[in-house]
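Good morning N.,

You mentioned wanting to compare the apo and holo forms, so I went ahead and generated the holo version with magnesium ion. This is what I fed in:
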Amino acid sequence: MKKLKTWGWNEEWELSFEPYRHEGLAPARVIREDRELYLVQTETGEKTAAVSGRFRYQAASRSDFPSVGDWAAVETDEAAGKATIVALLPRRTAFSRRHPGKNEEEQIVAANVNTIFLVSALDGGRNFNLRRLERYLALARGSGAQPVIVLNKADLSDCVDRYILEAESAAPALPVHPVSALARQGLDALEPYLATGQTVALLGSSGVGKSALINALLGVEQQVTGEIRAQDHRGRHTTTRRELFLIPGGGMVIDTPGLRELGLWGDESELAGAFDDIEELASQCRFRDCRHDGEPDCAVQQALGDGSLDANRFDNYLRMRRELAHLARKTNPAAQRAEKERWKKIACWQKQIQKDR
Ligand SMILES: Nc1nc2c(ncn2[C@@H]2O[C@H](COP(=O)(O)OP(=O)(O)OP(=O)(O)O)[C@@H](O)[C@H]2O)c(=O)[nH]1
Ligand SMILES: [Mg+2]
Ligand SMILES: [Zn+2]
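and this is what came out, ligand included:
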């Protein structure tokens, strides 16, 4: 398993692979995903792969299908250079969002990553957006991986320090690294996350320079990068599939296409991690179930009043909380039942009112 070690294989994976070893299957890491065609890395090299019929039959939802970063048990056909994915090992971490289009389904963007680089760009356009960063952060918090803020295109800005302070205000206590993929600046600071066996996923809007950063880290122009539109600095969705690359002498990086939609997936407790400051304030309100909406002795309203809590940040927090509550009602049977009961009561009550008239 020497080769797979550089791809992140270790004793813990070996342990969870034990049952498959007895079936004569081999471990493999999913390194590319293109609709339902995969590329996997095995001890004997890369192979194209598809899931087995049984795998497909047993998959309860889309999120059960392989994602880049997954470890799989495969049957290999060495002569043909092909593999069949029979099972996935339980994910240690997973960055997911609500499936765009299929709103009540989870979509796994990257699995088994140690660190998530949340990439923004300091090109003066909309590629630096604190509310969007908060949203990415809420999702990253739910993934189990460690989020890190990367501010790319530092070469284009005269006020990098101000951006750093702003990013820190949206992501308290997280590391913030200003870099330039083009000028090869600040990249040393990213090295500690890229030790051998470590996996980093790059996430951020189209055009922030995720692929350019990956090229800089790899030292070769592996990934195609795209021009951004002059008028609004938006990217053109140059990268279209997720792919994991091995850094020579180091860890791994996953390139992803810029996500247009960032629907939350998870529960409210995951939001709390991204908004420690608000949760901390809320714990000081007089009422434990304070909605911070005019109740007396509300620490949140006080902080909003004296400016120590940014109103836009608080609005964004409330918006995401509502979104998660809505999701919970849609996906969680208990919450669905409670909601049904509530509507039943309202219907009864409306009938009563009509009768009374
Ligand atoms: N000035 C400057 N330009 C950069 C830097 N990094 C990337 N760019 C440019 O920004 C544009 C977009 O870069 P990409 O790497 O394609 O962006 P991406 O995030 O991969 O975009 P998608 O693949 O569409 O999600 C390209 O024209 C890059 O040359 C940087 O550090 N400084
Ligand atoms: Mg790209
Ligand atoms: Zn309150």
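The chain has three domains: 2-88, 94-255, 268-356.

Happy to go through it together on a call whenever suits you.

Best,
F.
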